[in-house]
């Protein structure tokens, strides 16, 4: 493995840890906003995400790729569909936290990667290496243990979260194959 590949791998681990930390803290934050309607929280999240992504596009020098996507009506429709689906997922998650359904929401996010793998294999011709099969099997066992421990009652909200996120993932993957600008730099 060369230095550039090692640096990207380290960067990926750092980004993953940062993302999981933010997702771990998010329920605490949303719970502190229990008096605020979930739709209002969602609107704030959309607006602030817009500004964050605009900054990332600007500093990552990705305006050229962004303009190319904006010119393609088919991609724009897929992105709109993906945005609506992920917005529904966000709203359901915020509501679940504020309505004390955190167990169901967390179960949904445990199931989601498994469903994404299945959808990727079924519709996007993705193939797993043996170590990846092991990871999927361990995740599946973890979800099964949680279902046995807490009962199948908790699964309906979880499946809605999974369905919305999974469909958004598939629509996005079918639409975009862009490589972020920061990965293209030497």
Automatic annotation (TrEMBL):
Subcellular location: Cell membrane
Entry-linked InterPro entries: EamA_dom, EmrE-like, RarD
Keyword Phosphoprotein set for record: no
Key words, A-Z: Cell membrane, Membrane, Transmembrane, Transmembrane helix, Transport
Principal localisation: membrane
Gene Ontology CC annotations of this record: plasma membrane
Membrane-protein topology: Multi-pass membrane protein
Coiled coil residues, start to end: none
Alphabetical list of Pfam families matching this protein: EamA
All residue ranges annotated as the EamA domain in the record: 12-145
NCBIfam families cross-referenced by the UniProt entry: rarD (TIGR00688)
Family: Belongs to the EamA transporter family.
Protein name in the entry: Protein rarD
Organism: Vibrio ishigakensis
């Amino acid at each position: 493995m060369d230095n550039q590949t090692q640096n990207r791998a380290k960067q990926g681990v750092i980004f993953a840890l940062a993302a999981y930390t933010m997702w771990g803290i998010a329920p605490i934050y949303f719970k502190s906003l229990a008096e605020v309607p979930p739709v209002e929280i969602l609107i704030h999240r959309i607006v602030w995400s817009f500004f964050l992504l605009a900054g990332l596009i600007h500093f990552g020098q990705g305006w050229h790729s962004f303009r190319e996507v904006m010119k393609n009506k088919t991609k724009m429709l897929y992105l709109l569909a993906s945005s609506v689906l992920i917005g529904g997922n966000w709203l359901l998650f915020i509501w679940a936290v504020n309505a004390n359904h955190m167990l169901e929401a967390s179960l949904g996010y445990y199931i989601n990667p498994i469903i994404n793998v299945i959808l990727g294999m079924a519709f996007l011709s993705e193939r797993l290496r043996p170590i990846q099969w092991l990871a999927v099997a361990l995740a599946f066992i973890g979800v099964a243990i949680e279902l046995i421990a807490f009962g199948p009652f908790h699964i309906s909200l979880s499946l809605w979260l999974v369905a919305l996120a999974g469909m958004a993932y598939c629509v996005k993957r079918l639409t975009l194959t862009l490589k972020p600008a920061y990965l293209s730099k030497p």
